[in-house]
Specification:
This protein is 43% helix and 15% strand. With 445 residues, the protein is of the alpha/beta class.
Length: 445
């Protein structure tokens, strides 16, 4: 069964990239360049999910959302927004948008969000024994992951603050999303706040908002991200990077459950759950004086530790197969499997980048491998040499060669239409032409 998705954006390139990124056996994607057209398409056919840009000439994303919600309140709606207009989008979430994504959209993220919205709240979640090897989008059959699932099941419906720990790429954000989308707050906003990307001097007003005239340049009232999560969940990603001065303000919010916008005397009572994640050793940060111990104890009512992939070898093949299947379906390839050598190598490798590294490696192998079966030659040298049965004559993939292969594949896929290939590669046509010249596919003009 496939889901019908409608994407609305006035930028044609963005439409092309998003639909190419999502289109698969599972997702049947159609597009429109105006919200008006989107409304008529929706009235004519039913769609299971809508993705819409916020800023569009004519009807904007928020008005469009209102129309769709009036026609079909249950249809999931995902808003796309540029960094400067996040608060508009989050505001629109009050009117029923499921979530927002900032542009440029990370396609992996989009897919997770779409999966969450479409299949994230299946009925069997109320059953205490849902799919054994999967909890929402988190896959794992190993004992450590089963323990993570069981902990999530026990705490998801409480209001406990949860700190998710783990190395990079172990699925901390995935776990935070799974907690929110399987909690009673699932119908309310999930607001991720990346403490590493918002500049420290802006973080205070981003988190708590301000009143008109609170400082020079505060022309309008601005709601803070915490306030916008009302009823839902905020997720502080990389909490270890939160500015020391703001840690105190966050602690006060956690204690009092209220916020005060900058320049206002009024306190606003909030019902917001706080999840956070870090890959740092917070206890060490505390002893170095970089992190407040009192905040740590508040955030850390429950600790979930995402185990590194090397400590759950049973999951490697399960996740690898899942990811390969997904790529094969999406690209309509019939037979997709791994050579036994590859499986042995995967088991022997230590996966310092964890699941993200595994996913990237499979995607790379899928692009580079000319066969239906992924064999050792399609893996990077550093991992190929782990098993003794390395075939002779395998030349090392160097980066320029890999890039050449990827460009060739993309061009092939688009019957050498450069504009389309550039979209597929996520670069401009001009950049593509420069690269083609560099690798001798075009003569310099
Ligand atoms: N158990 C899992 N099953 C399926 N996919 C997973 C699993 N764990 C992680 N992933 C995928 O791996 C990638 C990294 O996951 P995620 O962003 O949640 O990790 P993270 O711990 O937040 O990493 P970082 O510390 O780098 O931010 C994502 O594409 C996610 O979908
Ligand atoms: Mg993360």
């Amino acid at each position: 069964m496939s889901y019908r998705i409608l994407i609305v954006d006035d930028e044609i390139n963005s439409l092309k990239v998003l639909s190419a990124g999502l289109r698969s056996e599972q997702f049947n994607v159609e597009t429109a360049t105006t919200a008006q057209e989107g409304v008529s398409m929706f009235k004519e056919k039913h769609y299971d999910l809508i993705i819409s840009d916020y800023k569009m000439p004519g009807m904007n994303g928020e008005k469009f959302l209102e129309k769709i919600k009036a026609l079909s309140p249950e249809t999931p709606f995902v808003l796309l927004t540029a960094y400067g207009t996040i608060e508009l989008a989050v505001n629109a979430m009050r009117k029923g948008a499921n979530t927002y994504l900032t542009k440029p959209v990370n396609l992996d993220h989009l897919e997770t969000v779409v999966n969450d919205a479409l299949v994230g709240r299946p009925k069997e979640l109320d059953d205490e024994t849902p799919g054994k090897h999967q909890f929402l989008n988190i896959i794992g059959k190993s004992q450590p992951m089963q323990e993570v699932f069981s902990l999530i099941r026990r705490v998801r419906k409480t209001d406990a603050n949860i700190l998710v720990l783990g190395e990079s790429g172990t699925g901390k954000e995935l776990a935070a999303r799974a907690i929110h989308y399987s909690s009673l707050r699932a119908g309310h906003p999930f607001i991720p706040i990346d403490c590493t990307t918002i500049p420290a001097e802006l973080m205070g007003s981003e988190l708590f908002g301000y009143e008109k005239g609170a400082f020079t340049g505060a022309a309008e009232r601005k709601l803070g991200l915490i306030e916008m999560a009302q009823g839902g969940t905020v997720f502080f990603d990389e909490i270890g990077d939160l500015d020391f001065a703001l840690q105190k303000k966050l602690l006060r919010f956690l204690q009092e459950k209220e916020v005060r916008r900058l320049g206002s005397k009024e306190k606003i009572q909030l019902d917001v759950r706080v999840l956070s994640a870090t890959n740092r050793d917070i206890e060490e940060e505390i002893s170095n004086g970089n992190f407040r111990a009192d905040l740590y104890y508040r955030l850390n009512v429950i600790k979930i530790r995402m185990p590194p992939l090397r400590e759950r070898k049973e999951d490697i093949l399960l996740i690898a197969r899942h990811y390969l299947d997904h790529l094969c379906k999406k690209n309509k390839k019939a037979v997709c499997s791994f050579d036994p050598d590859v499986i042995a190598t995967f088991q022997a490798y230590s996966w310092p980048g964890n699941v993200r590294e595994l996913e990237n490696m499979i995607e790379r192998a899928f692009i580079l491998c000319p066969y239906d079966r992924i064999n050792l030659e399609c893996l990077p040298q550093k991992i190929r040499s782990l098993t003794n049965g390395e075939p002779a004559g395998c030349d090392e993939f160097n980066l320029p060669e890999m890039e050449r292969q990827i460009i060739l594949k993309a061009l092939d896929k688009c019957t050498w239409n450069q504009s389309q290939a550039a979209i597929l590669l996520g670069i401009s046509r001009k950049q593509l032409r420069t690269k083609m010249k560099n690798i001798g596919l075009l003569t310099s003009d």
